[in-house]
Write a structure and sequence with these properties.
The chain is of the alpha+beta class. It has three domains: 75 residues, Vcp-like ATPase, Chain A, domain 2, CATH 3.10.330; 171 residues, Rossmann fold (3-Layer(aba) Sandwich); 39 residues, no CATH class. It has seven helices and 19 strands. Strand 1 and strand 2 form a beta hairpin. The two termini are 47 Å apart. Its EC number is 2.1.1.220. It comes from Salix purpurea.
């Protein structure tokens, strides 16, 4: 399902097959992940959809129900997977993910260590970033969460790029077998400062580290721990503001909620000598732009640093 040939772009190619994972798109904020099975059906407000009708169609296809309703069948890209996955823990969203992949300098061929795995939102994007020759080794102390993450990575087609381990990184540190091999380390832990000495041993010279924390007090203790062996310590808060863009009519006599405003004055309709009705052009269709009401605010702080080179 997922093409990882080094000579090609990492993408979902070919047609939908029995057993594939697809993202069923109803509208912008209503999507779900569905595993295709030839004998199964999907029922929603638009009608009944037979999975057998989906098999053989390319990703992105529009499919009809028995009532004439429709949905779109999208590929489970890391961006869409982040929006539909099961939240076993708090997850990172697209704004934070794209920012940290850039600042950690993760490229194809990189070896990345991650703790903890959680719901696997970030891990899926890391896998695509290191493909086709890199690898992500991710660890979680919770055995059931780790097992669920393995199943998800197999469903989304990145299991060949990800190895999931069960380990308490805060208490035990990263396995010694990765010492000096990691290009980047990412920490999403309650007490990341406890794992920083081990992370420093794992990194190559000039390697990068990022720690995600929801509270500024965690950031302060993390930065204190980083001072001994790391440099270029920086903390960011990524805030994303989304806008709605749609076509509508704006009457100069009315405000956004239909309330009258004092200026400019509204011209009355009048009839021309031919008897036709004339109307002020201010009520003609126009593009309306406004911030989304459900935009997310603070998610957490991203603290970056670089391992000091030996003199």
């Amino acid at each position: 399902m997922l093409c990882s040939d080094g000579t090609k772009k990492l993408s979902f190619g070919g047609s939908i097959k029995d057993g594939d994972l697809v993202i069923v798109y109803e509208k912008r904020d209503v999507m779900k992940a569905v595993k295709v099975s030839e004998t199964s059906v999907l029922q929603n407000r638009f009608g009944v959809f037979k999975h057998s009708d989906w098999i053989g169609k390319p990703f992105g296809s529009k499919v009809l129900s028995n009532k004439g309703g429709f949905v779109y069948l999208l590929a489970p890209t890391p961006e869409l997977w982040t929006l539909v996955l099961s939240h076993r823990t708090q997850i990172l969203y697209i704004a934070d993910i794209s920012f940290l992949i850039t600042y950690l300098e993760i490229v194809p061929g990189s070896l990345v260590l991650e703790s903890g795995t959680g719901s696997g939102s970030l891990t899926t994007s890391l896998a695509r970033a290191v493909a086709p020759t890199g690898h992500v080794y991710t660890f979680d102390f919770h055995q059931q969460r780790a097992a669920s993450a393995r199943e998800d990575f197999q469903s989304t087609g990145v299991d060949s790029l990800v190895t999931v381990g069960v380990r308490d990184i805060q208490g035990e540190g990263f396995p010694d077998e990765y010492s000096g091999l990691a290009d980047s380390v990412f920490l999403d832990l309650p007490q990341p400062w406890l794992a920083i000495p081990s992370a420093g041993k794992m990194l190559k010279q000039d390697g990068t580290l990022c720690s995600f924390s929801p509270c500024i007090e965690q950031v302060q203790r993390t930065c204190e721990a980083l001072k001994s062996n790391f440099r270029d310590i920086r903390t960011f808060e990524v805030l994303l503001r989304t806008f709605e863009v749609h076509e509508g009519k704006i009457d100069s006599c009315q405000g956004e909620e239909g309330l009258s405003v004092r200026s400019p004055p509204c011209k009355r309709r009048h009839r021309s000598s031919e008897g036709s009705t004339m109307q002020d052009s201010s009520s003609s269709p126009t593009i309306k732009v406004r911030p989304c009401a459900d935009a997310r605010g603070h998610t957490g702080y991203l603290t970056f640093s670089r391992l000091q080179c030996l003199s």
